[in-house]
Protein: Pyrrolidone-carboxylate peptidase
Organism: Caldimonas caldifontis
Amino acid sequence: MTSRILLTGFEPFGGERLNPSQALAEALHGQRVGEAEITGLVLPCVFDDALAVLNQALDAHRPGLVLALGQAGSRADLTVERVAINLNDARIPDNAGRQPIDTPVVPGGPAAYFSTLPIKAIVADLRAAGLPASVSQTAGTFVCNHVFYGLMHALATRHPGARGGFMHVPLLPGQAARLAPPTASMALETMREGVLIALRTALHERVDRVVGGGALD
Amino acid sequence: MTSRILLTGFEPFGGERLNPSQALAEALHGQRVGEAEITGLVLPCVFDDALAVLNQALDAHRPGLVLALGQAGSRADLTVERVAINLNDARIPDNAGRQPIDTPVVPGGPAAYFSTLPIKAIVADLRAAGLPASVSQTAGTFVCNHVFYGLMHALATRHPGARGGFMHVPLLPGQAARLAPPTASMALETMREGVLIALRTALHERVDRVVGGGALD
Amino acid sequence: MTSRILLTGFEPFGGERLNPSQALAEALHGQRVGEAEITGLVLPCVFDDALAVLNQALDAHRPGLVLALGQAGSRADLTVERVAINLNDARIPDNAGRQPIDTPVVPGGPAAYFSTLPIKAIVADLRAAGLPASVSQTAGTFVCNHVFYGLMHALATRHPGARGGFMHVPLLPGQAARLAPPTASMALETMREGVLIALRTALHERVDRVVGGGALD
Amino acid sequence: MTSRILLTGFEPFGGERLNPSQALAEALHGQRVGEAEITGLVLPCVFDDALAVLNQALDAHRPGLVLALGQAGSRADLTVERVAINLNDARIPDNAGRQPIDTPVVPGGPAAYFSTLPIKAIVADLRAAGLPASVSQTAGTFVCNHVFYGLMHALATRHPGARGGFMHVPLLPGQAARLAPPTASMALETMREGVLIALRTALHERVDRVVGGGALD
């Protein structure tokens, strides 16, 4: 079943003209990781609509592995998310002008889902390959966390056996160049290499390694 | 029932000689917030042991309101935590030398609990009073999150009607002065005023205000 | 001659209603440090005008020691400035609407002046007293650096024997509370204690201690 | 005379195995920018020795334009330095074990030199090309500032007509991957493109543009 990988990104939001996660989903569409073929999918940066598109793709492709990507404008490295929470709290409007505050992603759903990817192994392999990476304890409360939670809920309730998770990527240099310095960025090529490593590790390790990746606060 | 408030802090950890949360629990022990009297309690910074002490106090005092405090060495403002996750991942050993990695706080417990305090109202009231404050989307994965999760689990399963939550406070100036600059800090008096405001708001508002406090990533 | 200390602060700028450096100059006006009496002076946050007021006070009071204070909105600790540069480059307009770009503070003046205060000793004494402090390698290019440079030029050319320097202080909690979190701050009382320690050390040590305070970049 | 460009980098220091500035000097050695040919030169990360090697190269090549590069481990973008100060204050030992504290680069030299490159124009052109960049008001107090000051002193006193300056670059991804996250980095290819743009602008613009690039503090 893991012969199909779904890799999602988002369209630009927040006034940006680019989104590295979109560029990655498009660039890797059709590529193979071992036996498995990647289907790239770009989601609207819109609450609920993003999940409708995602769920349709899950039904259509029935992937064994799903990695959702999102842009993290305040981060400097590849951050593999640990946990998705059942909460929307939008600091800015989404691309449809919606700005939910303290609503659930899935009414009645559990408070949170943990990633079912081997997040410690992915971070270790990324760093070993010379790519800055770390575990993140929060995916925020905007559409990224929304999609991460919705994905994990879908896998848990409707796609037994499939595994999934979320990785945030920094801005591209061209995005950072238009913002107030200093803003961290990462080249698309660096990110692309990182996504492939993350997918390879996720395919091969079903049980995560017991190595530290926690935060004191 | 909210005539009793339990306010917990932690003993020093990580090589520190002080912990502002201990100082606050001790300084406010016996004080009143309106009708309600504060019981200050200092917890060991030790996985499981901290929860044993906390649970004993919950049984003994049967507080209607519990605010757990902890030190956040990397933060500059008062941060009201939104969610506790069922996970221990210790970057450093606790005070008993334990360093669990990716273990649950409560085996079989839900993935997360949300604070049952009005976190948006507390942040708004703190800021209106001239105290830097914000909502935090992660309490980390060390003993602070452990106690926060254990507290919420205890309230949910054994103390119906009682409400609780967690607030992180920065380092004291005297702690920051011994670390590599720049390290943010906050005067104890500023924190003390903040804790009293947080408790007052928590006592009076059972339904949170619908105001933003989210994070994009 | 060091029986007179001139302590300057600035009026609020950049849309703020307060400036901690003004509060400090006013609060310490008339206080003694050993034998020496402090004259507090509030400068307009206006290029050139600030120096006119400063120079008038230098002539009137003939202080042996001058400490100029300024607000550093992006800093978390007390920062003792090492060097003033002969350059104005205003990112925002000053309080008179002036916004010079790449003009000299003193046409024909040297490119820079080093502080003549014992900056390493001051930082060491501040930290020993439990106050977060560090040496800063840049006072920026706004009115703070302008006054620092103008002060050092005046002392070098017209007030032989008098010594002077500059210290930046963080925002007050009440200022940080109105800005986007996280913004570091420091209680006025903590700053006040710091200024007195800095003055005491400056009075007693004419030769700085040889201890590190550098920056790699 | 500007038909010769000298581009310097440093050997690794501080326990690193790489230094992006070395990689850039080596990669661009022999390349042309318009009519001008680049001579790449790697300097030892050693106080005084670095300047001996630099001065020898200035005498041998008599470049019309000199751009010195250095690694800034704490920065996220390309930072064009504004000013070099006559001061060594080493937080760590250099590669020969020397750790000068508060000594002058050139005894009796002026307190500082400003870059004679069009720093605002360079930053504007870098950003317009999609490369994150900003003006920096301090080159630190380690070997980078030492070389920057020594370079400007040599140009001012012995190489009339030649112009020069300094640019700091972030860590490479492979360096950041071995440090505690989050550490910002930049791909070598992004830096390489940036250095070529900086050189092109420096060659063509002898008078800087009047655009902001200041710091409030």
In short: The CA atoms of residues 40 and 99 of chain A lie 27 Å apart. Chain A has one domain: 4-204.
